[in-house]
Amino acid sequence: MKRLQKIGFGGGCHWCTEAVFQALSGVSQVDQGFMMSDAPHDSWSEAVGVIFDPGIIPLEVLTEIHLRTHASTSNHKMRGKYRSAVYVFDEDQSAEVQRILARLQEGFDEPLVTQVLEHRGFRASDERFQNYREKNAERPFCQTYIDPKLTLLRKQFTEHVGQS
């Protein structure tokens, strides 16, 4: 039996990222906030920490979902606040994510800008923003930005959507 693993994902608004990973079977916890790594990536950037069961949802599936639900091929001007990254916790995880990104690159027309970074810190979002979609599903932000990502999940990753 595999034990639970932890990984970090950053790329777009952490309200969106939180809702995406909360919708997945095999994900037992999603911590919304800000992450940082080593210089030059040592500023806080919106991200989520994800605790998951790789026996239910493999890291490759989580990574592909992450890439498909944010602008993973765009090096836009907001990359400081919305760094496209997978935050890893050890060398083995780093090597695995790098192999996964190389395999998944084949499914994208443009080069991925997503980086593999060492997790060096986490700061939780203010409590009023935690579980944002759950608390604000009817608000325009959720309907405009989060709901389309959840629709994509239901269409492209059906077998992984559900309760953990």
Verbal overview:
The chain has 164 residues and is an alpha+beta fold. The chain has one domain (5-160): Peptide Methionine Sulfoxide Reductase, Chain A. It contains five helices and six strands, in the order E-H-E-E-H-E-H-E-E-H-H. The chain has helices at residues 14-22, 59-68, 91-105, 132-136, 140-156; strands at residues 5-10, 27-36, 45-52, 85-88, 115-118, 121-124. A six-stranded mixed β-sheet has the order 5-4-1-3-2-6, with helices on one face. Helix 1 crosses helix 5 and helix 2 (59-68) packs across helix 3. It is globular and about 40 Å long.
- Briefly note the structural class of the backbone: alpha+beta
CATH superfamily: Peptide methionine sulphoxide reductase MsrA
Average pLDDT works out at: 94
CATH architecture: 2-Layer Sandwich
**Helicity range:** 25-40%
Please identify the top-level CATH class: Alpha Beta
**Whole-Å distance between the termini?**
17 Å
Strand order of the largest sheet: 5-4-1-3-2-6
Structurally, how many domains make up the residues?
1
The coarse overall form would be globular
**Contiguous uncertain segments of 5+ residues:** none
Query: Count the strands?
Result: 6
Strand content: 15-25%
- Which value, in Å, is the CA radius of gyration? 15 Å
Q: Report the total helices.
A: 5
